[in-house]
Amino acid sequence: MAQWLPGPAVPIATDISVERSARGWINGFIGVVIFAGSLPATRLAVLELDAGFVTAARASIAAVLGLVLLLALRQPRPARADVPGLAMVSLGVVVGFPLLTALALRHASSAHTIVFVGLLPLSTALFGVLRGGERPRPAFWLFSLLGSACVVGYAARNGIEASLQADLLMLAAIVVCGLGYAEGGRLARHLGGWQVISWALLLALPVMLPLMVVMRPASLGAIGAPAWWALGYVAVFSMLVGFLFWYRGLAQGGIAAVGQLQLLQPFFGLALAALLLHETVSAGMLLVTLAAVACVAGARRFSR
Questions:
Q1: Exposed/middle/buried for 283, CB within 10 Å: 0-12, 13-18, 19+?
Q2: What secondary structure letter does DSSP report for 96?
Q3: What pLDDT does residue 289 have?
């Protein structure tokens, strides 16, 4: 006679799924906090260092650290089928976003460019559907579009006439970064978060290392300590440590859903810009950022 077992199996599976999703949001939040310092630090670095050198140096330093991790923990090589995806990650977040934002920061303040980061959740969600096979509910897109509209509306009113070149560079950076985030989140489901960024960095190393040597400053001693500290931050934290949490969060909680946490990044970034660079943060910047942040809760509710 079959023995009755108390408690259905489905709620247990649901609890596990909810717990995994919660861990994803926690990891994603930590990643966003780390990334928030990227643009202020990049701005500080390009004040004295060439934008191309900053891009190549941050990628090269992070690649060496990633290689140490891969060797120390004896990670197997990725499958051949994963190489094209890793190349997309490399082009998007290792080369594309750092270079385009560094160039944009030559023409605009970090406080101005940070506002564009509010578009990253929408870009990431779109590529999460195209590359990650996710299908958020229609209401999710309403909240995601609303948050992005706040950012675009502010930029159209206050930013485009100030520096069209910087705005176009930032828009291009958002597109390639969204692709790199979504592809990395997809690969992290079976490769692991830190493994994805480490392999992507290694793919770019044969190009980035020679560029770093060629584009190095003529006199290293002439560069002030703040620029070197800023380069160190974007190399170690923005280029490697942040991704350890970010890609894990995307894999656990969903690319489109956890990607909405990026709406918080401008808020943290503006605070850092004011604190470290003494840049002016207007009331309009704060209002548009807070409005975008308010959309995170709604997007999260309808993300699945």
A1: exposed
A2: I
A3: 72
Place of tokens 């990227």: 38
What is the per-residue pLDDT for 187?
Answer: 95
Structure-token pair, residue 237: 């934290």
3-class secondary-structure state, position 137: coil
pLDDT value for 66: 96
Q: Tell me what pLDDT residue 102 has.
A: 85
**Backbone φ/ψ region at 240: left (φ over 0), alpha (ψ -120 to 50), beta:** alpha
Q: Which residues of the chain have pLDDT under 50?
A: 1-10, 161
With beta carbons less than 8 A apart as the criterion, state whether 32 and 265 touch.
Answer: yes
Within its chain, how far is the Cα of 292 from the centroid? 17
Dig out the tokens for 84 from the structure: 């094209």
- Interval 85-122: pLDDT, tens: 999 999 999 999 988 988 888 887 766 776 777 788 88
Q: pTM (2 decimals)?
A: 0.82
Give the pLDDT of residue 12. 56
Distance (Å, rounded) from C-alpha 148 to C-alpha 257? Answer: 15
CB count in 10 Å sphere of residue 291: 18
Q: Which pLDDT value is given to residue 168?
A: 87
Could you tell me the end-to-end alpha-carbon distance of the chain, in angstroms, rounded to an integer? 40
Q: How far is CA 13 from the centre of its chain?
A: 30
The conformation of residue 222, written as its DSSP 8-state character, comes to G
Contacts by residues 166-169 (CB-CB < 8 Å, ≥ 24 positions apart): 166/104, 166/105, 166/106, 166/107, 166/108, 166/112, 166/113, 167/104, 167/108, 167/116, 169/100, 169/101, 169/103, 169/104, 169/107
CA count, 13 A, side-chain hemisphere, 48: 17
Neighbours of 41 (CB within 10 A): 27
Angle between helices 164-191 and 193-214 (to 10 degrees): 140
